Amino acid sequence: MVLGIGLGGFVDGILLHQLLQWHHMLTSTDTDNIGVPYYPADTVHGLKMNTVWDGVFHTFTWVMVLVGLAMLYSRVQHSRGRVWASRALWGWVLAGWGVFNLVEGVIDHHILGIHHVRGGPNELAWDLGFLALGALLVVVGYLVQRGATFTDAVRERARA
């Protein structure tokens, strides 16, 4: 799940922040009601501040990927040849991505209001769609991993 949180964050940051440029970390279209400054992306200062905070966000997602890889490596090292089939890995990655969407969506989009998926007249619909995608990823990820089985890697190597 930790690996999925990091990878889901990368998808969000790369796709929504950089490629589509729908939002950055602090580009809320709401009025400042929680003490977080508003930095519009259409000014040099605002874009500089958003770039810094996008970098902080990407650092978090990178650390989550590193922690997830370390956890995966540790499990493989201590498995004594018994490892999960890839279905478990990818199911939990999807579930982790969904958890990322749900937590980030509720906190950043709804509670703090520091940014929204896409501003404009359908802002709430985009934010709710982001949450729905997160819930769907959690459910699909859980269902995918549920059918995972163990593989005896030692026995598989002996057969080869």
Automatic annotation (TrEMBL):
Keyword Transmembrane helix applies: yes
Protein keywords: Membrane, Transmembrane, Transmembrane helix
Regions crossing the membrane: 56-76, 88-112, 124-144
Transmembrane helix keyword on record: yes
Pfam family membership, one: DUF2243
Xref: InterPro entries: DUF2243_membrane (IPR018719)
UniProt-recorded name of the protein: DUF2243 domain-containing protein
